[in-house]
Write a sequence for this structure.
């Protein structure tokens, strides 16, 4: 039982408490992100073509990691089949641009939309499974998409396709355009994730993560929210697929539908830190650096990165970003709500 | 007649898939882990078979007797070293650790044995068969595989139902905390369950490694086949897994009969059709948890 005085004191405290979303570090984050993106946008005037192409690879990894994190880190869905959409995005670009003669830079968003539309019926199949069986189920679906692609002669069957319509541009322009497209893709992927997770949907996902049944009973539309994120993630992966095809100019079913993409995505997100926006970006950069650094070692790089991912899962579940940010004290992209009480705000109790 | 032949060969293949799936089903049943490294662990067993039979010249059956306990030991160590830790972390950790293990082990096998395809030699038993009619032959080896698959499914079922350790596994599956209060170490039960699952994977790896030319990444297909057999049959039902394996096997051989490149696709499509129209599987467990 509380005495009237205590109740009064409690009321005073709550009247001074405020819910904050942005933090000092998040304004700093914006202050860093905008100049970095502007600087990156100027890169084609500064760095050579080979380096631009490498950066496009890095950008595609950032998009993939961000999309896998959206699915698993926020939606709790571990997919091993996102390569289905990478392939659809890549094949979509080459088919629409080369065979149907569309502008390649229009073909990319179109194939992203196609991937999104296809992911809706696919989600109804995949959502019949949960947890680990969902993971293998998405993998089977990706295999089916690959096997169907290999039966279609217009898509090059088992041999694959080359993207030729970009050759109308001079190599310097082509690479710069693809670079800008890819940089824009990174900004879009991160921004979409950020605003989705700050929205009502993000709040719903926090509730689902804590207790799915309770969230559902409070009116969170669990399946609906998950399906929405599944479709967004598919579209993001298709965008990355378009970037990969535009960067390498050659796609084969075995390479573009490779389950290794899923391995990369999972490792990047685990290493960087699952369930944050910054983590996948950090993970992608670390993964890319390791890949470059260990490239002389052949397949050993994937072994080293895999062992690292297992160790991080077991001993550092918040990943490298958790380490850097002091377990979430620094937030460059805050999506949650923080209760700031008067003591914290004024440094001492107002009474 | 060739269609009948395809169906018969598919049924025999289904025995192999059921054998592959038994361990996956067992690990999920006892500790709710979907072991994404299941397929590549079968490949590990197959490569052990290559080493013992092809390189060291041991008889096939002696190699089988050696590989199965080795795989059981591997399972025991994996559970204590990795999966028990991952289970205690909760959330997505067990799944992510299993996936990491699958990738690492696949690459290690690639590094050690290269990506050249191998096959375990078995000599005359591999090619001898019984002639049923003018066009239908039943190979001794596929028949033996089928019988072993059925025996393993039946053995695991009886073990879980009757043996004291099997009862402990079912109890641990129902409530790992309460089981601890009853004087059973749930982590030790998990380790023994994984050891048993890996023993069946050892068997499966020997049989599939003898039947097929394989490379390290063939483990991906093994995992997918095992998974499809489990889901078609219905989660939690071992006899269902046998039925699921047979349906998958028949779908693949009939698909290949239509067009040699359709085998895998038809198998996958049958799986997706079951998922769409009968998601609980054909023989679901009466009481689901």
């Amino acid at each position: 039982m509380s005495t009237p005085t205590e109740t009064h004191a409690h009321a005073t405290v709550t009247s001074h408490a405020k819910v904050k979303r942005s933090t000092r570090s998040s304004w700093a984050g914006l202050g860093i992100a905008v100049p970095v993106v502007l600087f990156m946008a100027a890169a084609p005037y500064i760095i050579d073509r080979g380096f631009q192409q490498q950066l496009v690879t890095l950008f595609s990894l950032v998009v993939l990691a961000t999309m896998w994190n959206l699915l698993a880190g926020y939606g709790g869905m571990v997919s091993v089949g996102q390569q289905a959409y990478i392939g659809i995005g890549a094949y979509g670009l080459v088919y629409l641009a080369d065979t149907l003669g569309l502008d390649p830079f229009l073909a990319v968003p179109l194939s992203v939309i196609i991937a999104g539309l296809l992911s809706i019926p696919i989600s109804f199949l995949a959502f019949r499974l949960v947890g680990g069986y969902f993971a293998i189920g998405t993998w089977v679906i990706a295999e089916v998409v690959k096997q169907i692609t290999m039966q279609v002669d217009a898509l090059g069957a088992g041999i694959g396709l080359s993207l030729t319509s970009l050759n109308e541009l001079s190599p310097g322009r082509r690479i710069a355009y693809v670079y800008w497209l890819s940089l824009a893709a990174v900004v879009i992927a991160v921004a979409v994730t950020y605003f989705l997770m700050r929205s009502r949907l993000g709040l719903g996902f926090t509730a689902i993560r804590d207790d799915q049944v309770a969230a559902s009973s409070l009116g969170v539309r669990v399946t609906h929210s998950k399906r929405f994120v599944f479709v967004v993630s598919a579209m993001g992966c298709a965008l990355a697929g378009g970037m990969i095809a535009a960067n390498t100019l050659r796609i084969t079913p075995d390479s573009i539908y490779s389950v290794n993409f899923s391995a990369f995505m999972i490792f990047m997100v685990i290493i960087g830190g699952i369930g944050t926006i910054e983590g996948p970006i950090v993970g992608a950069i670390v993964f890319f650096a390791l890949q470059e650094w260990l490239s002389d070692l052949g397949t050993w790089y994937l072994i080293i990165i895999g062992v690292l991912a297992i160790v991080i899962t077991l001993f550092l579940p918040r990943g490298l970003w958790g380490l850097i940010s002091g377990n979430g004290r620094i937030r460059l992209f805050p999506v949650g709500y923080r209760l700031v009480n008067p003591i914290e705000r004024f440094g001492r109790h107002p009474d | 007649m060739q269609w009948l032949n395809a169906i018969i060969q598919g049924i025999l293949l289904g025995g192999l898939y059921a054998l592959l799936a038994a361990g996956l089903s067992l690990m999920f049943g006892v500790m709710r882990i979907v072991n994404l490294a299941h397929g590549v662990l079968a490949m590990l067993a197959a490569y052990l078979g290559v080493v013992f039979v092809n390189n060291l010249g041991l008889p096939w059956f002696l190699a089988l007797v050696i590989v199965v306990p080795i795989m059981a030991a591997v399972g025991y160590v994996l559970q204590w070293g990795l999966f028990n830790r991952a289970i205690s972390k909760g959330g997505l950790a067990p799944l992510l650790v299993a996936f990491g293990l699958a990738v690492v082990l696949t690459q290690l096998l690639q590094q050690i044995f290269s990506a050249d395809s191998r096959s375990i030699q078995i000599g005359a038993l591999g090619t001898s068969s019984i002639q049923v009619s003018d066009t239908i032959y039943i190979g001794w080896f596929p028949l033996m595989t089928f019988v072993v698959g059925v025996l393993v499914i039946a053995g695991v079922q009886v073990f879980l139902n009757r043996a004291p350790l099997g009862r402990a596994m079912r109890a641990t599956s129902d409530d790992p905390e309460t089981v601890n209060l009853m004087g059973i170490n749930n982590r030790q039960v998990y380790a023994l369950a994984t050891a048993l699952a890996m023993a069946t994977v050892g068997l499966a790896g020997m049989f599939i490694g003898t039947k097929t030319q394989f490379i390290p990444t063939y483990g991906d297909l093994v995992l997918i086949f095992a998974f499809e057999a489990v889901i078609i049959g219905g989660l939690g039902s071992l006899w269902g897994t046998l039925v699921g394996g047979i349906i998958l096997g028949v779908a693949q051989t009939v698909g290949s009969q239509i067009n040699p490149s359709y085998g895998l696709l038809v198998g996958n499509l049958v799986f997706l059709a079951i998922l769409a129209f009968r998601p609980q599987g054909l023989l679901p467990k009466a009481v689901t948890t």
Q: What stands out?
A: Chain B has eleven helices and two strands. The CA atoms of residues 255 and 266 of chain B lie 5 Å apart. The domain at 2-114+127-277 of chain B is CATH 1.10.3470 (ABC transporter involved in vitamin B12 uptake, BtuC). The mean pLDDT of chain B is 90.
